[in-house]
Structures are given as C-alpha cells and as structure tokens.
Amino acid sequence: MRQIKHPRLEQIELTDLMHALSDPARIEIVRCLARARRPLTCSEIDIDRPKSSMSHHFKILRAAGLIETEIRGKEHFNSLRTGELEHKFPGLVKTLLRLMLAA
Amino acid sequence: MRQIKHPRLEQIELTDLMHALSDPARIEIVRCLARARRPLTCSEIDIDRPKSSMSHHFKILRAAGLIETEIRGKEHFNSLRTGELEHKFPGLVKTLLRLMLAA
Q1: Residue A96 in contact with partner chain B when CB distance is under 8 A
Q2: CA angle A52, A24, A6 (to 5 degrees)
Q3: Segment A27-86, tens digit of pLDDT
Q4: DSSP assignment, residue B21?
Q5: pTM for the complete prediction?
Q6: A15 touches chain B (CB under 8 A)
Q7: Chain B: nearest CA to A31, how far in angstroms?
Q8: Which of A15, A27, A92 sits opposite B22 (nearest CB)?
C-alpha cells in the first residue's frame, strides 16, 4: 500500500510547529481535527478554501509533524499527532488546541 | 520623546505570535529576554547574528506583540509582553517559555 512520509518525532522542531500554525487556514484545519476527535478525510474538512491550496496546507502541517495522513483505499485520513507531540513538547499542543477551540 | 509603535493587545493574533516564533533567531531573542527577567538593550542580546538581520527580527517580534521596546536616551530596552499575552492567550507564552528555556 502506498504510504505518505512523515517526520519522526525527534525531527520535529518547535519552529516548524510555529510556522505550520502561522496561517489562518491551517489553524482552521487543526481546529476541525481537534473538534472531530477522529481521523477526517480531506473532503470532511470543509474550510472554504480552494482545493489546490488545501493540499499545500496539509503538506505543511504534515511536514511540521502536526498531522499524520493514512491512506485507506482511495481516501486520505488525517489526524493530529497530539499524543506524540505532548511527549516532546509537554503542554504545548494542549494549550494551543484549547485556545483554538475557545476562539 | 520618540516612541516606538506597538500593537494593542486586541490587535494581536495567534497567527502573528506563531509566525514570530517560526524562526530560530527570534526564539533565541525571546529566550534571552526570558532568562534575563529584565529589559535588555539590543546589544545585550548577543545571539551571533548580523546587526541588520537583528533589526528585522526585533521588528517582527514587536509587530507580533511578543516584545515591547522602550527608548531611554540612546538605548532601546526590550522586554517580553508576557503579562498581557497571558491575559489574552492563557497558558500559551508560559508554556512556550518553559519549553524554550528547557531546550
């Protein structure tokens, strides 16, 4: 099965996470995933942006280590790497998600 | 006395803070200020970067609302806006500073 590459936890830098969250569209994607509490396909994440720009945003979120994407059949399922990130950056993602969900 | 403009707390966006911290040099500046626990002049913040790029980094940190700069005589004194930011984004700056100081 085709797989998508993800950075390992030790490769993830704080600056990458910050860059990934420096764009309102990417914050929207993360908020959707946090609300859903389950993996979402790209089409389930409806944030009213052109499909081409969405691929770009997913790529940046994935490269930063914020989300992981699993291919099942023809669908791409995206989820937050909250547990792993909590291990490397204690408290950070929890705090960010709390602020994003409150906004 | 000449003053430097700063964004008001209500103008500060999460994406601006994230952008400001997406660069290793700017994280270094913030770490210096957090360690010092007092306002520092630009020359006291010695992070081995060209002076021209330092001005750029200070400008971005200031525009994002992360630091404030006060002019006293010929010196520019920089400090973190931790207290204000804690009010708007509870827990965020504390968590980020803890992670930066531990790194």
Answers
A1: yes
A2: 60
A3: 999 999 999 999 999 889 988 888 888 999 999 999 999 999 999 999 999 999 999 999
A4: T
A5: 0.93
A6: yes
A7: 13
A8: A15
DSSP for residue A47:
-
C-alpha B94: how far from chain center: 14
Under DSSP, is residue A32 helix (H, G, I), strand (E, B) or coil?
Answer: helix
Is B22's CB within 8 Å of A23's CB?
A: no
Q: Which residues contact A71 (CB under 8 A, 6 or more apart)?
A: A1, A2, A3, A4, A77
ipTM rounded to 2 decimals: 0.92
Which residues have a Cβ under 8 Å from the Cβ of B24 and sit 6 or more positions away? Answer: A15
Distance in angstroms (rounded) separating the CA atoms of residues B25 and B15: 18
B23, B27, B95: residue with CB nearest A92:
B95
A-chain CB neighbours of B21 within 8 Å are 14-15, 18
Interchain pair B91, A95: CB under 8 A: yes
Tokens of A57: 């945003």
